[in-house]
Design goal:
4-stranded antiparallel beta sheet, 43% helix, 17 helices, 444 residues, mainly alpha, two-stranded antiparallel sheet
C-alpha cells in the first residue's frame, strides 16, 4: 500500500508471458504521481503467477559470483551492526533485534528485482481485462459468500461496502492466494542496506521491528512481497502501524493468518479513515455529448451531476447520473475509450494506490462482484502503449515546440498531460490529453 497522489497511470508488463488467468493472478499497479493517462506501472511479487508491482522476467539469473555475494553479505552484516543503535534509539529492544536478525543474510535477488525495471508497457484495457476478468469476478463472489458473516460485520462497523473490500483483496493477493512468502526483515534490511532507496526502506524496517516488538507476529512469520508489502491486502509496515486493526479480538492484528478477517477489517478501517462515503459510487460510466469540451475532463474541475447533465452528460443508459456530490470527468484512454464520472470515493481508493487504473480496477471489480454490468464503451484496442524511449521523445518534441513538459523523464504526469492538451488545442485536435502513439507520430 502506498500513500500518494496521481493524475495518470503507467503499467509495465512482464518480459515473459502472463500466467494462466484461471489461477486468478494478483494485480497491483505501483502507485505513481507521474504516470501516463492510459497506462499504469506494475511491480513484482515473489511468485511468477502474480502481476504485482514492476513485473519481472520469470527467472532472474545472477551475474555475481558466490565470492562477490559473500563479500556483499559481509558488508551487509557490518551494516546491520551500525543499524542496531539507530533502531534502539527509536525504541527497539536488543532482544527484538536479536530475534529479528537471527540467521538473516543479504539477499542479492531482492536487489536484482529492484533494479530490473522493464520499459515495456500495458494499456489500461489490457489491465482491466485481467483485473475484472470473469475468473476474478467469480472468485470474488465466492469469497464474498464464504466470508459473508465477517464482511457484513466489517461493513457495519466501518461503513465501507463489502464488495469494495473484497475487490481490493482480489487485486492485492488474489483473495489471499498470493500473499508473498519473502521474509520481510530480510527483504527490508537488504533494501535499506542498498543505497538506492535506503532512507525509505530503513523507515519501513523500523516499523516492521515495532510490529514484532508489539507481539502481533513472529520474525519468521512476518512474510510478504519482496518490497515489504504484507498480508492479504498488502500493507506496508508504516501503514500497518497506523491503520491495522484487531477485528477478531484475539489481541493481535494478524493480517498474515489464513483467516482474512483482520486484514479485511484493516482495509475497511483504512478507507474509512480517509473519508469513505457509504452509498456513493467510486464512479459511473457515462456518455458525452458530441460537442463536449474535453478541456473540462480534468480532475481539478468538479461539478454536480445535475450540472454535468445540463451539459449533455448522461449515464450509459441515457439517463442523468444521480447526484452523489461533486464529480469530475475522467477519460483514461482519451476521447476514444470509456469515460467515467468520478466522485470522492475515487480519491479515497486512490489513497490505497494512486494509479488511476488501480482505482478503476477496484471500483469496476467491486461493481461486477455486486452484479453490475461490464464497461460498455469500446476501448481503442488498436493502440499500444508507448515505451519509455517514446515517452521521453514525446516530452522532448513537445518542449521543443514550446509546450514545456518541465522535464524529460518518460513519466507522463499532470505537467506532460497539460502540455499535450495545449499542443492539441493549438493543432485543432481534440484536447483530451491522451499521450498516444498517433500523437507522437504527428509530433514527428
Amino acid at each position: 500500500m502506498r500513500i500518494c497522489t496521481s493524475a495518470g497511470i503507467l503499467i509495465l508488463a512482464m518480459t515473459g508471458s502472463l500466467a494462466d488467468e484461471t489461477i486468478d493472478n494478483s494485480i497491483r499497479p505501483e502507485s505513481r504521481a507521474d504516470a501516463a493517462p492510459a497506462e499504469i506501472r506494475m511491480a513484482s511479487a515473489d511468485i511468477d503467477t502474480s502481476l504485482r508491482p514492476v513485473l519481472r522476467p520469470r527467472s532472474i539469473k545472477t551475474s555475481e559470483s558466490p565470492v562477490m555475494e559473500q563479500e556483499a553479505d559481509q558488508r551487509f552484516q557490518d551494516w546491520v551492526e551500525t543499524f542496531r543503535p539507530r533502531a534502539q534509539a527509536q525504541g527497539i529492544s536488543a532482544a527484538v533485534l536479536d530475534r529479528a536478525f537471527a540467521g538473516v543474510t543479504y539477499d542479492a535477488n531482492i536487489i536484482r528485482r529492484d533494479r530490473n525495471q522493464s520499459e515495456f508497457s500495458k494499456t489500461i484495457w489490457e489491465y482491466l481485462d485481467s483485473a475484472a476478468s470473469q475468473t476474478r469476478i467469480s472468485n470474488g463472489q465466492s469469497a464474498l459468500r464464504k466470508h459473508d458473516s465477517s464482511l457484513n460485520a466489517i461493513e457495519a462497523r466501518y461503513g465501507v461496502e463489502k464488495e469494495v473490500v473484497v475487490a481490493i483483496w482480489g487485486l492485492e493477493s488474489a483473495y489471499g492466494t498470493y500473499r508473498g512468502n519473502t521474509d520481510i526483515v530480510r527483504a527490508l534490511s537488504t533494501l535499506a542496506f542498498d543505497a538506492r532507496r535506503s532512507a525509505f526502506f530503513e523507515t519501513q524496517l523500523i516499523a516492521a521491528l515495532k510490529i514484532l516488538q508489539s507481539g502481533d507476529t513472529a520474525p519468521r512469520d512476518m512474510t510478504g512481497s519482496w518490497a515489504g508489502a504484507m498480508g492479504h491486502t498488502q500493507f506496508i509496515p508504516t501503514s500497518y502501524l497506523d491503520y491495522a486493526v484487531d477485528f477478531t479480538g484475539d489481541g493481535r492484528r494478524d493480517i498474515w493468518s489464513d483467516d482474512p478477517s483482520d486484514a479485511l477489517a484493516s482495509t475497511a478501517a483504512y478507507l474509512a479513515r480517509f473519508g469513505w462515503t457509504k452509498g456513493q459510487p467510486w464512479g459511473v460510466e457515462i456518455k458525452l455529448p458530441d460537442d463536449f469540451d474535453f478541456q473540462l475532463a480534468d480532475r481539478k474541475i468538479r461539478k454536480s451531476a445535475t450540472e454535468w447533465s445540463r451539459m449533455g452528460v448522461v449515464g450509459v443508459n441515457g439517463k442523468p447520473v444521480p447526484d452523489h456530490g461533486p464529480a469530475s470527468i475522467l477519460t483514461p484512454a482519451g476521447s476514444g475509450g470509456a469515460v467515467f464520472m468520478i466522485f470522492k470515493n475515487f480519491s479515497v481508493i486512490e489513497r490505497y494506490n494512486a494509479a488511476d487504473a488501480y482505482v478503476i480496477g477496484v471500483g469496476h471489480l467491486s461493481d461486477r462482484i455486486a452484479g453490475g454490468a461490464a464497461i460498455q464503451a469500446p476501448w481503442p484496442r488498436g493502440d499500444r502503449a508507448l515505451t519509455l524511449k517514446e515517452r521521453k521523445e514525446m516530452q522532448q518534441r513537445l518542449t521543443a515546440r514550446g509546450f514545456d513538459t518541465q522535464g524529460i523523464d518518460g513519466r507522463i504526469g499532470p505537467l506532460t498531460i497539460d502540455a499535450v492538451r495545449a499542443y492539441q488545442v493549438a493543432s485543432g485536435l481534440t484536447p483530451d490529453g491522451y499521450a498516444s502513439l498517433n500523437l507522437l507520430s504527428r509530433l514527428r
